[in-house]
Amino acid sequence: MNGKTRYQAPALKKGLEILELLAGASDPLIMSDISTALGRSVSEIFRMLQVLEEHGYITRAEDGYRLTNRLFALGMSQPPIHDLASTALPVMQELARKAGQSCHLAVASGAEMVVIIAIEAPGLSGFAVRVGYRRPLHRSNSGRILLAFQPPEARAGMLDAIRATGDQWDEAELEARLKAAVAAGGAISPSPMLTGITDLSAPILIGGEARAALTMPFVDGAANRATVEKCDQLVRHAAATIGTAMSPIMAVPPRSKEEEQ
Q1: Whole-angstrom Cα distance, residue 144 to residue 179?
Q2: How far apart are CA 32 and CA 45, in angstroms?
Q3: Least buried of 85, 155, 244, 251, by fewest C-beta within 10 Å?
Q4: Which of 190, 120, 166, 116 lies closest to 146 in space, CA to CA?
Q5: Contacts 24+ apart (CB under 8 A), 162-169
Q6: What's the rounded mean pLDDT across residues 196-200?
Q7: For 204, what's the count of Cα atoms within 13 Å in the CB-facing half-sphere?
Q8: Better pLDDT: 258 or 51
Q9: Phi, psi of 190 (to 5 degrees)
């Protein structure tokens, strides 16, 4: 097939290109920026922006266009993610209450990890990661947990996805960190984004592999309810609780239409 797809859908392709461009942009983009980035005329882009806005996938403000959370909401409605979220939420709320710290749950999405649940720390102060936050798998504690607790073939595929982005890293160092995480059953690492924060992460294991990573960005302080060592234990226990609760759900195959009738 000479590397080309068999079927063409130009309008759909343009719409997907716009969504992917906006997803990777740190700030809203105006129409001319989108046109230039995609190498398409303003008239082509204008029609697609109108349709995407009408269907709620993007929104427009004075500074440009940005994605809404519609795509995220659609992904969250899928049974595996929905079941994971509904199971993890009360456990994470109890974890935040006991530790006095925020916590979040992340899953793999291509070459990145994406946060699907975020629980704020109780009280008037604390640090929390927002839902939808993304970071390359190999450059976050959550992402490295997702890489570490995978079968070799699955991990190789995830690393290939990272390489395809053009990012470079010390592969020997990463391999050592992944092995250490597996041996320890989790990982503790300084936050790559903010000083004074230590990321405590543990895998949500279902069928022996990480379907998600539970992370607490631990903020040290005199008013802390628990030490970093205690919080690490709490994170691991919460992750194990979620994994145990999810295992029977994930093991049950979906019912056919004939069985439901």
Answers
A1: 10
A2: 9
A3: 251
A4: 116
A5: 162/111, 162/136, 162/137, 162/138, 164/111, 165/111, 165/136, 167/111, 167/136, 167/138, 169/138, 169/139
A6: 93
A7: 27
A8: 51
A9: -60, 145
Amino acid at 29: L
Measured in Å, how far apart are the chain's first and last C-alpha atoms? 43
Hey, is 102 helix, strand or coil? coil
Strand partners, 61: 64
Strand partners, 210: 205
- Asked if residues 134 and 26 have their Cβ atoms less than 8 Å apart, the reply is no
Do residues 214 and 85 touch, judged by C-beta distance below 8 A? no
- Token pair 């592969």 in the structure block, residue: 171
Instruction: Give the pair of three-digit tokens for residue 40.
Output: 């398409």
- Upper half-sphere CA count for residue 183 (Cβ side, 13 Å): 6
* CA–CA distance, 213 with 142 (Å, rounded to integer): 5
Q: What integer is the mean pLDDT of 136-161? A: 95
Q: CA-to-CA distance for 250 and 211, rounded, in angstroms?
A: 10
By CB atoms closer than 10 A (0-12, 13-18, 19+), residue 73 is exposed
